[in-house]
Amino acid sequence: MSMPKMLSVMALVLAGSATYACSDDSSRGTPAPTPTADGGVDGSPGDPDGGPVAKKNGFQFTVSGEDLAINGYDFGADPKANGDPPAFVDGWEVKFEHVIVTVDKIRLNADPDKDPANPDMQGPVVASVDGPWAVDVSIGGDVLGKSGSPDEKTVTIATIDAKSDGTAFDPAQRYAFNYDVVSATASAKLVNLDAAGKALYETAKTNGWSMIYQGTATYKGAAPAVGSVFEKIPKEVKFTLGMKNPSSYINCQNTDLQEIAAGEFPRGLQASADKVTVAQITIHTDHSFWSKLNVEGTELHFDPIAARASTYGTVGAASGTVTLDDLVNVDVTGFKTKNDEVLPARSVVSDYTAPAGQLAFDSNGTSFTKANSYAAYLQYSASSGGHLNADGPCKVKNNYTP
Amino acid sequence: MRGRILLVSVLAFTACTVLSLGPTGCGSTGSARFAFDGRAGGVTRDASQPLAFVNETGWTITLTKANVTVGPIYLNVIAPLRDEASFVPWLGVKRAFGDDDHLGGGREVGEILGQVTFDALSPALVPFPVQGTMTQEQIRTAEIWLWPPPGKAPEAVNIDTPSVDVAGVAVRGDSRVPFRGALILNDAWTTDAKPGERSAQPVTSLRKVRGIPTTFFPTEGGALEIRFDVRPLFRGADFSNLAANPADKDGTKILVQSKTGKFTTDQVMRNVFQGLRASTGTYAVRWVVP
After folding, report:
1. Domain tally for chain B?
2. What tens digit of pLDDT does each residue of B191-211 get?
3. In sequence order, what E strands does A125-252 have?
4. 3-state SS assignment for residue A203
5. How many domains are contained in chain A?
6. I need a labelling partner for B66 at 20 to 30 A (CA). Which of A74, A230, A319, A357 fits?
7. Which of A390, A397, A401 sits opposite B86 (nearest CB)?
8. Cβ-defined contact of B199 to A371 (cutoff 8 Å)
9. Is residue B241 part of a domain?
C-alpha cells in the first residue's frame, strides 16, 4: 500500500476512535466491545465505524470481501473492453445481499520461516486475540481495502498493540499470521450485521454454517437457443449457500511485502514503529464458482447452480431459489439439470470459449467424501478463499470433512 | 482478472526436469547424496483373483486391464498443501487436498528421471529403467509426473501415448457395460484459453500430480516404492453415461476424451482423469529398506 493511502487509512481509523477505546491491557489483543444483552454487539447497520483503534507499532485486523462482495459481479459480453473484471462466462450477474463469515483466533507466532518448506512449522504464539467475530463483508466498513479499489470497504475487528509478554513488536522481524474461520456461534460478536443479516446468522447457527453467501443472480447474456435447456433456467435465481467449512489459515504469505520469487511472498506481518500496520483477512468470493479447484483466475460459472433452481423446467420460468442442499447430489464430472438433462458448457463472453459437450469441473487432485459432489466441491473451494491482505495465500487446514 | 495476482508457483524447468535415461544430479548440496532404485506396481493383493469392487454410484466393476505409465518422479521437502481432516472410509485411505498453483514450488531433493509402465492389476513391482538420485533430507511430498514418452517434449500437446489404459465390465442391476478406454493427457484436457487469458494453463501442469503426502527420511541402500490403486479412477463413474458412446462390434463401450466432435469427453473418462491426478487415494509412496 502506498504511503498516501496508508495515511488516509490511519486518518479513518483515528476518526473512528470516538466510540470504542483501546484496552490498556496489552497482554492480549483488543477485541470489539463487550456483548450486549442479546449476545451480540450491535453496530449500526451500514455504519461499522467505531472499531477498536490500534497504536503505532501495533496491528489492526480488518476483514474484507473485496469490492466484489460489496458490488457483486457485473456481466458484460466483452469483458476486456471493460477492463476485464472478474465475471461469469455463462452470462450471469451476481449480487450479494449477505456474505457472512465468522472469524476467530487471530494468532501471531514467532519465526514464520522456521521451515521454509512447511508453513505449519512456526515459533510459539507471541500475541493473540480471540473473537469470534461475525462479519458481513458485503456491507464492509470504513477502512479502505488493500486492493486499491475505492469500493473495497473493510471492517476492523480487533487490534494487537504488543506481544503477550508486554514487550513491543520488533519492526525488524516478521510474525507468522494465523486465523480461523469457525462455525456460526451464539458467542460471536456481530460486528456489522444488519437486521436481515442477524436473522440469517440465526439460521447459520442452527445449521453450523461458517460462511454464508446469499444473493440474487440475474441472467444478462444473449437469449438462449430455442429448445435448449438454457431456456428452462429461470432468469433470476435467489441463492443461499450456507457452507459448513470451518478452516484454519496458517502462516499466510503477505502480499504487502516485497515479492521474493515469482508468485511467492514472505510469510507474516511486520510492524512499523511509526504507524499502525493493517492486516486484512480477505475473503475471495470468486473461489466458490471456479471450474477448477485451487487455480486462481479460473473462469466462473453460475449455470450449474441456476440449473438446480426451484422453478427450473419451463420456458420463462419465474424467479427460483437454490440452496447448497440442492447441490449435494450434483456431479461435477458431468453436470445435469434439475430434470436430469445434460447441462452443456456455455460461454457468452468474447474472451472464453467453452468446450463442446457437457459442462464439467476439475477437482484438480482433490477428493470428497461423497464422490464428485458439487456441494462439497463448492464449499471446499470457498474455504480456499481465505487470504492475508490482497492475495497472500495461507496454508489451509480444513477442520471439517469435505 | 482485475485485482488478482496470479500466484502461480512456477517450477523452473531446469536440467532436473528433462527426461533422460542417465542419472543426473540436481537439488541442494551439503547433505549426503546417493543413488537409489525405484519400483512401481499395483496394490498388494491376491493377483489370482480378478480386481472387482463396487464404486460409489453402485456399479460393480471388474477390471481386466489397467496399464499405467508414470515418470519422472520427484521427491519434495514441501509439506502437502492442506492437512487431511479425517480418514475417508472408502478404500481405507487418507484424504488430502489441494495441488497445483496454491502449492509452493518447495524444493525437490530426489528424482527418478525415467518412466515405467506397469500392470496396475498386479502387485508385482516393476523397476524404473534408471536409478534415481537423492539428497538425504526429510521428504514430505512426492510428485508423480505423467510425461510424454522419451523423445517427446514435455510440453508437446499432440501426443498419442496413454497414461492409463483400462478395460473391464461394469454391472448395476440389469445393466452390464463392457468398456475400454485409453487416457491420453493431450489437448483434450487443456482449456482453449491462450497464455495470459483467463484459466489458461500449460499442458505440463495437468501432467503433474503434486503434493502426494509421504513422509520418510531416506537412507542409502533403500528404495522408493510406488503403489497405484486403480479403483479411485472409477470412484464416481456412472456407466449409464456411456449409452451414446461409440462401441466395438461386440458392444464394448469406448471411453471418449474430446472437446469437439460428435462424441465429447464422457463422465466415466472424466472420473478416470480425476482419479489419475488425485494427490491422495491413488498413489502410495514409501521408502523401503531391505
Report:
1. 1
2. 776 656 656 678 898 999 999
3. 125-129, 133-136, 143-144, 153-160, 176-181, 189-190, 211-219, 236-243, 247-250
4. helix
5. 1
6. A357
7. A401
8. no
9. yes
